[in-house]
Specification:
Blueprint (H helix, E strand, L loop, with lengths): L25 H16 L3 E3 L1 E3 L2 E3 L3 E7 L2 E11 L2 H18 L4 H17 L1 H12 L3 H26 L2 E2 L5 E9 L2 E5 L7 H12 L3 E5 L5 H13 L7 E3 L4 H10 L5 E5 L2 H12 L10 E5 L4 E5 L5 H13 L9 E7 H16 L19 H17 L1 E5 L15 E4 L6 H4 L6 E7 L2 H8 L4 E2 L1 E5 L3 H10 L4 E4 L16 E2 L17 E9 L13
Parallel strand pairs: 1-5, 8-9, 8-11, 9-10, 11-12, 13-14, 13-19, 14-17, 16-17, 19-20
Antiparallel strand pairs: 2-3, 4-5, 6-7, 7-22, 15-16, 18-21
Helix pairs in contact: 1-4, 2-8, 3-5, 3-7, 4-5, 5-6, 10-11
Bound molecules: nicotinamide-adenine-dinucleotide.
Length: 538
Amino acid sequence: MSAEDRPKPIHVQRFQNEPNTDFSRAENRAEMKQALKDVESDFGADYPVNIDGKAQDCRAHIVSRNPSDKETVVGTVASAGIEQAEEAIEAAQRAWSQWRKVPADHRAEYLELIATGIRNRRFELAALLVLECGKPWKDADAEVSEAIDFCQYYSLAMRDLVSELRCDYPGEENTLCYRSRGVTVVIAPWNFPLAILTGMTAAALVTGNTVVMKPAEQSSIVAAKLMEIARDAGLPTGVLNFLPGNGEEIGPALVSSPDVDVIAFTGSQEVGLSINELAAKTDPRQVSVKQVIAEMGGKNAIIVDDDADLDDAVQGVIDSAFGYAGQKCSACSRVIVLKNTYDAFVERLVNAVESLVVGPASDPGVDFGPVIEQEAYDRISDYIEVGAEECETLVAIDLSDRKDEGFYIGPHVFNILEEDSRVAQDEIFGPILAVMKARDLDHAFKLANGTQYALTGGIYSRSPKNLERAREEFLVGNLYLNRGITGAIVQRHPFGGFRMSGIGTKAGGPDYLLQFMLPVNITENTMRRGFAPSADNE
Ligand code: NAD
């Protein structure tokens, strides 16, 4: 049976992706503008921690600012300490004793209610993504759709997993079924603060686990809105606990707790590996080996073959490299161009990059907005200096005159002279693109695979033979042929990398939920020799 013959499970066949908003329609543009105003009128509000169904304030607070206009405070969020982390784990553990017994169908219905809650507030959430995270309109809107998709998809996928797998023999019944694992700590990044947080949380909940939800500091208000939506869906007390806070402080306490069974993490390689290591240390009070699900960074490449359609390739590379200022884990940060097409490609690329418009994310006319915060601004600026020293500069748009306004960094393109230079190897997570020249296709694959990552990758080629080689030789979790490499859509493009990009799981795909559960096989000898009498069967 070939791969495409593998049938889709019954319930998942009904899945349909949520449509994005059509901003070419005046009424949608007007609604988005109004939502931006409404969110702005709420600026300065405080958001609490929520443990065991109770809102709590904390001694410390996270001040969330608009990266497009850094003096503007979007709001403040209570910042949980270690004591609250422990309280949240206890609450989740108590709630698990009941939640695990709730029928899977019923748990799936909660996800549908959360999906409806997100749908009803889609413009508000998109506006908040623009204002808290500097996401351009279209990216923000697509992220809301993705959050809805995760809820709908996992709710259907769970319904498929409920049915037990039977393998009976005469005189023996065998049943394979799934059980929840227990308390799940969800630790999310700021770059997809709604979709990724929703996806990991929804997967844990629908599989019967209870959750301590720890969002990224930079996007805590988006997360607070998700918590409001989940609360309105009526989840039982303690099943979902909202624990915003400083990751370096409460993260290790959450990960090392003997009462935590699963850690679902998405973020940087550095933090992901530290979590993996800490979770592997066994506490004598622990009753299960912790399951770590870690989705980490990338240094993704697009290969441009000698015969590629250059109009398509330039557009695809630009969208993939500079969308959301290069702050997508799937972003293209290296373009590897075959030598015969190198000059023509670079000339077009440079012209196109120089025309990109950078400005406040709330302006629908910009190509991309600011980077997320000062720390990112400084780190990316350092890499620009390294690039200027170690590489040939092809494009350098200097926006430092706007640094008092927001965290704006113009697009930069460097021609790589040494394959192992930092600009060619490190995940920079900003609007910086490295261009590399390849002698031939063998060399192109060697360069593409020549980092420790394996997340996304792509090739533009008109040669069926070369596309076939890419399928075999390009080591990435998500490979794209003749298109951009960002914008994975739930079910159509299950997403996740391997090597040092992740443990190899696929969010939004058919296997994802299995990691949150334990398979149990029950065998019964049915060659009965009579039942013992009891009050029930007498
Ligand atoms: P990050 O690793 O800095 O932070 C992620 C989360 O970890 C945050 O909630 C943070 O508070 C928490 N954290 C920080 N230190 C911790 C510790 N010691 N213990 C436990 N938790 C801790 O990442 P980020 O800057 O928020 O996100 C950007 C990174 O995420 C990039 O590397 C990007 O490639 C990656 N990412 C990967 C995917 C994927 O699917 N592979 C998707 C999105 C983002």
